[in-house]
From TrEMBL:
This is Putative transcriptional regulator. It comes from the Bacteria. It holds the Pfam family HTH_20. InterPro entries: ArsR-like_HTH, WH-like_DNA-bd_sf, WH_DNA-bd_sf. CDD domains: HTH_ARSR.
Amino acid sequence: MLADELRRDLYQFIRGQDKPVTREEAAAAVGISRKLAAFHLDKLVEAGLLSARYGASVGRRRTSGRRPKVYEPSGTQISLTIPARRYDLIGEILVDAVAGHPIDAERAALRIAHERGRTIGEAARAEHQLARPGTDRTLRLAQQLLASLGFEPVRAGERLILLRNCPFHRLAQRQCRLVCGINEAFIDGLLRGLGNETVTAVLNPDPGHCCVELRGP
């Protein structure tokens, strides 16, 4: 189903939103007609990857009584690269921790995760020639960086980012406290690397999301 590039793009777009998406919004996002978008979206619904319903009427639609059809992820887990998994990243952190500090590998893993995140943040900061980015700029950059790492970040408020995917999902199911701690340390390091000291990575486990969220002051 997702071998088709267009359907994959539609699916990824909808997964990245924090609200249901209309056919018009999906079509505009991938640059196709509404009719073609409707065809592919309904195929994704048939495959169980999306769910569909009729949303509340807005604007002119209210006078006609017609409600737009909206789409959202169904919650079905698929064993492709969506949702993305990054076992290589956490594997490197854990191997370095165990090899370098076998007596207290957990504490070492948290430190190494923070350093890895900080390195990524510092590289982005240098690329964008930032001094001390404010809250909004930091959240935008962090969202871009975490999206590239498979966390599927979405804005859930003016100064709140939720992560819809844990790239280390299977390991988190086996060792939740350790993996969630590594996630928090990694993302905190990334934020510090960007040069901001006010945006924080906060542990807030919630079914269907990564255990960490980003909060601005």
